Amino acid sequence: MKKFSVFASGNGSNLGAIIDAVRAGGISAELVLVVSDKKDAYALKRAENAGIEFFCFDPKDYNQKEDYERIIVEKLGKKGVDFIVLAGFMKVLTPYFINIYRNKILNIHPALLPSFPGGRGVRDALQGGVKFSGVTVHFVDEKVDSGPIILQDIESVLEDDTEDSLLERLHKIEYRLYPKAIQLLVEDRLLVEGRCVKIIN
Ligand code: GAR
Questions:
Q1: Mind telling me the catalytic residues?
Q2: If we measure between CA atoms, which residue out of 34, 28, 40, 32 comes closest to residue 14?
Q3: Is 104 exposed, middle or buried (0-12, 13-18, 19+ CB in 10 A)?
Q4: Which protein residue's CA is at the shortest distance from atom 4 of ligand 1?
Q5: Which of 28, 32, 136, 153 has the maximum number of C-beta atoms within 10 A of its C-beta?
Q6: 4-33 residue pLDDT tens
């Protein structure tokens, strides 16, 4: 069975959905390590509650990103991790890390990429006046919220939507879409051709 790691910086509600999907058999891979750059991330509590090993680092303890990434790579290697799932992980990975796990790192973003990348995707979409937003799952490349798109789903933006109300609906999509994309990767059904991802039946 394939093994994977989830990286999260915050609440970790997507991590929670992924843990549930693994338990329910919707993801047929083993979640062996949770990684966080924030020691007070609730995601770590979720890992602990689920009995999943976790590793937390403080970027301030390192001179450069590659220094902590080398430690993470070592840990991932020891755990036999095949692929990585970013779930609200707010640190940009360096080319060093991405090259090691090329097309084996997934990310989820609460907007329809390539529009509104970054840490404020929901707010930027609302301020951009869009009538539809949504969720994107994509492979990670060197740029922020970039990389070949795997799955997307759309959500209407209502006239009285706030960041919170829209995010609440987008989260529901995320909890469904991310396990689905992860399972496609587990089943080797994602074929990357340049910027495009073909889903093999
Ligand atoms: C999610 O909505 C995810 O799409 C977003 O962070 C949230 C994490 O929530 N990611 C980004 O904005 C990436 N640019 P969670 O910690 O409750 O899973």
A1: 109
A2: 34
A3: middle
A4: 109
A5: 136
A6: 999 999 999 999 999 999 999 999 999 999
pTM for the full predicted model: 0.97
What is the C-alpha separation between 103 and 138, in angstroms, rounded? 9
Amino acid in the structure at residue 7? F
Ligand 1 atom nearest to 17, measured from its CA:
18
> For residue 71, how far is its CA from the centre of ligand 1 (angstroms)?
24
3 neighbors 29 (Cβ within 8 angstroms): yes
- Residue 179 has a CB neighbour count (10 Å cut-off) of 21
DSSP characters for 48-59? HHHT--EEE--G
What CATH number has the domain spanning 1-101? 3.40.50.170
Q: Report which of 15, 17, 101, 25 is spatially closest to residue 54, judged by C-alpha positions.
A: 15
190 and 156 in contact (C-beta within 8 Å)? no
Closest CA to 42 of 56, 30, 31, 28: 56
Please check whether the domain covering 108-201 is classified as CATH 3.40.50.170.
yes
